[in-house]
Structures are given as structure tokens and as C-alpha cells.
Amino acid sequence: MVERRGTLGLLAHAVVILGVLIVAFPLYLAFVASTHTTQEIVQAPMPLLPGSNFWESYKHALFGGSGNGSEAPVAHMMWVSLVTALVIAIGKISISLLSAFAIVYFRFPFKGFIFWTIFVTLMLPVEVRIGPTYQVVSDLGMLNSYAGLTIPLIASATATFLFRQFFLTVPEELLEAARMDGAGPMRFFKDILLPLSKTSMAALFVIQFTYGWNQYLWPLLATTSEDMYPVVIGIKRMIAGGDAENAWNVVMATALLAMAPPAVVVVLMQKWFVKGLVDTEK
Amino acid sequence: MEKRVQFRSTWLPWVLLAPQLIVIGVFFFWPAGQALLQSFQLQDAFGVSTEWVGMDNFKTLFNDPGYLASFKTTAVFSVLVAGLGIGLSLMLAIFADRIIKGALFYKTLLIVPYAVAPAVAGVLWVFMFSPSLGVLAYALGKLGINWNYLLNSVDAMTLIVIAAVWKQISYNFLFFLAGLQSIPKSLIEAAAIDGARPWRRFWTIQLPLLSPTTFYLFVINVVYAFFDTFAIVDSTTHGGPGQDTSILVYKVYYDGFKALDLGGSAAQSVVLMIIVISLTVAQFRYVEKKVQY
Q: What is the pTM of this model?
């Protein structure tokens, strides 16, 4: 910074700390609630400091118990979410790498048409075509399966677009040198392009994993049996009972469990994630 | 843009493209085409008979006061979400940009909401604002404000706006921070030497140079408010009280899957498609003419 002025620096810290406190408050409160019993929470105002019911709440959430509302064990839902998020992230990255490679490095007929066919999908989120997509998946008999949960969400070109932008910045000399050494297209792809794309792949992985894990509307429609619910749907079903009947400690424990994996991925891979996020725009 | 050197092969590019083309063909173009087709058709609730009705679905739609009200709700909601989200995160980014000690710590905490699912964000805020047991509702009650989002539509709108902004703040913040850090230090220093104070420098240098970022974020936030907030609405207000927080994407779902009005729902999908496409085109056109520096 240009000048060092005590008051402004102090103000900056104060504003940012206030912002962080406000942003973190719901998370803190969720944690506090998850360490109490339901009885302690429903008598307003609920305690603002952690209690002693931590293990019971989380055990109840993870492995199920007796009570009102949906009581399916969260451990299994977390598994469904994990598989879904991984399939979406890895699936999207793999098919996009291949198609971006074809678009950038090959000359073939109808290329312009194919290019626009793929990129028009950038514009329409799944929410917009939700009804017909449901019918298609249902006609194909893919409801309540991992394929039905994941493949329709893979059908978009965000990753293809990013990889295309990246491939265009790879120096031409690399391709020329590789060809001179007698490398065919797949050899070039595997030995040169893939290693160079590692950072983009990491960034996309974070973004797509979070995207897949946090899906709501699509799984709500595509799954009807309890053993295929991702955790985000599970938590919604838990609060169906109304204020007084919900086991809020279990709900909040589930909420924290549901946000933990993407949060860990985002925080640990922060550096690549931020780079990837900001680069997508360009 | 094209590479000067390219491979030639009659079959390999098609093999490489096949997975992507099959997936978008089956799960994107087919459903999108269906939506378009259905929007001109009338189907009874059991799917037995289908009738071609031309523009009737659209006419019904735009004569339906409920739909027009939903348009207004969505407009209010998205402007509030985009405006508040951008304003608050810009302020945070401006101050965070001045901080050197502990910057990574603050940043890490501020990006966590990005990882939280919208549905979970909704549940967290419902818990705090629940009229019977929520901490914030209790605090408001102590201040003499009778808070009940289940009965009062302003309260309900406030609740979904807060939840939506909270969830989106991380994203906006990261972009603003990256934007601020890409402004050349020499510009700021030159202005400082000319005697411009931080406040003045913000208005005359940083803010104008951030205008492309701000515009981009505005479009992204509006798109977010239009579509990604479905889960927030569904986990908090269910579009209520009455229809007062029933935003367009919620209505598509409700009319199509709860009320089983397929033609009407498809017509709504088509209207939504037109909105997204125009937003995207506006964005691309603006990016082309991007401010140069």
C-alpha cells in the first residue's frame, strides 16, 4: 500500500473482521445447535455456546435413529453425494478434454457448426429445461440410478470452453516439435497436452465437484427412493416436520456434514480454484 | 482463433467428440426441443391426448396475473440479490485489499459459503429466522419487531434475499479481490503522489477500472438469482406466503410437477430460455467492447 496510516488500516481490519463474523455466524450457530439436545434448542433463546451433546447428534445423524421426519442414515447419503459429485467432476473433465482437443487441434468438416452446437449449451442451465429432461431420463429408465443423477448434469460445455481457451494459449512450437519427432495426435495429447493442463484440471475439479455435490432440483426429481438421496435432499426432507417437531440438533449436524466435503476441497485447493474461477471469465 | 498447425484425420476428431456430442444431444438438445414443442401443445393431465394450440399457452401465460406477479417478484428479488451482493462484497474486497497481515485467514473464511449448497444455506437461515425458535427472530422480537416469514411477505422476501446474498458473497468477493490486485500499483502510487486520498483514489481509479468485473458479476448474479436460488426458496418459504416469493424458476417446477400443467410449464421454460439467452448475449457483447487499460 501507498501510505501507512494507522486509522485506515484499523478500519480495514474492523470492516473485514465484521464481515467475516457475519458470514461465519450461521455456520457457528449450526455447530452450536448440533452440540445440544433438541429440547435445549427449542426453548428460545437457544444457548449460544457449545453444549455436550456432540457425539449423540452426529451419531444419530450419520447412522439414523428414532424420531419424527425422515430418519435415513446420513452416512449412506454422503456416499451417494460423493459418487455423484466425483462422476460429474471426472466425467465432465474427461469428455471436455477430448472434445476441446478435437476442436483446437484438428481440421475437419462442419467444425464451425460443431463448435456452436457445443457452446450453445453454455447458455441454458438444467433448471430451464427441467421438465423435458425429466421425461427423457424417465423414458430411458434412468430414474433412481447414478447414471440418471449424473449424466444430465454433465451435458454442458463450461469445461470444454475453459480447456479450449487454455489450449489456444499453448505455444505452437510444442506441436511442431512433437510432430517433427514423429508423435501422432494421441501421443501429443497424452505426453504434452495433459501434463500442461494439470492446473486447469485441478481448478475445474474443485468447481465441478462443488457443483455436483450441491445439486438440488435435479436429484429432487430424479430420485424417489430413499437409498438414492444425496445428502442435500436428505436434509431438506428432515425439516419437513415443522418447527417444533424437527430434531434440530440432528438437522444442523447433517448440515455441517453436508457442507464439509466441498468446503474441505475448496479450502485445500484454494489457490487453483481461485485461479480457475477467475480465468473462466476471460 | 485457429492453430496454424493442425492434425488431419477423417475419423479421430469424431471419436474424440463423440462422448460430448452424444451427451448433449440426448440430455440437452432433445429436452430443449421438447420444451419448445410442448410450449405449443396442450396435454391433458394423464398424457392421453395432445393437441396443437399454437401460441395459446403463451397467451394464457401472459394473461395470468399470477405469472406476471411472479415476474415482478423475480425482478425485485434478483435486483436486490445482485445489488446487495455486489455492494457488500465490493466493500469487503476494498478493505481486504489493504490488509497484509492475516489476509489468507480472512480470505479462507470468506470463501467457505461458496462450498455450501443453496438448499443447506436456506436451512441455516430458516433455523435462525424461525419465528418460534430462531435466534435472530428472538432478537428482533426483543427489539419490538414481530418477525414471521410464514405470514408476512416482506419478511419472507428478506429471508430469501439474505440467504441468497450470503451464499453468493464469496464468489463476488474473489472476483473483486482479483480485479483489485490486477490494477497496476504504479497508477495508485502516481495518484497518491498527486495528493489523492484513498477515498478519492477509490472513486477515480479503482472503481472505474473494476467496471468490467462489476458488469460481469452483475450478469452472473442475476443469472444466479434467476436459477440457482430455486433450492433456497424451496427449503425456506416454498414460494409463500401465498405466491409472494414464488420466483419464475420455482413456478416452472411447481406448475410442471405439482400442478401438472405441462404446456404451461414448457411455455414458462421457453420464456426463461429467452431471458438467459438475452442476458448471455448482452454479456458477450459487452465483453467484446471491454474497457481497455
A: 0.87
